[in-house]
Amino acid sequence: MAKATTMKITTETRDRLRALGADGDSLEDVVVTALDAYESQQFWAAAEAAAAAETPDQRTERQRIEADVDSWMDGLR
């Protein structure tokens, strides 16, 4: 487990965090859950941006590679 450190936050922020938690959740539980959600949102935003930037040629090549991998995986079964 990581070493605990002190983080200064306002009473308002602390109260907002407490309000987000379920019964029995510590403030750390709430912060970790919030960070997980934030990181997930950032990941999907980046994935959507990459998909939007993909050219038709890149898409065709990616789909070809994915089909090859699927075929290889089917052959392992």
Secondary structure layout plus pairing:
Layout (H helix, E strand, L loop, with lengths): L10 H10 L6 H27 L2 H21 L1
Descriptive notes:
The model has no long low-confidence stretch (mean pLDDT 94). The protein has a domain of 53 residues. The chain is mainly alpha-helical and 77 residues long. The longest helix is centred in the middle third of the chain and has 27 residues.
Low-confidence parts: none
* Proportion of beta-strand residues: under 5%
What is the percent of helical residues? Answer: over 70%
> What composes the largest sheet?
none
Structural class: mainly alpha
Helix-strand sequence: HHH
- Over all CA atoms, what is the radius of gyration? 21 Å
Find the count of extended strands (DSSP E, 2+ residues): 0
How far is it from the N-terminal to the C-terminal residue, by CA? 40 Å
Q: What is the residue-averaged pLDDT?
A: 94
Overall shape? elongated
By DSSP (H or I, 4+ residues per run), the number of helices equals 3
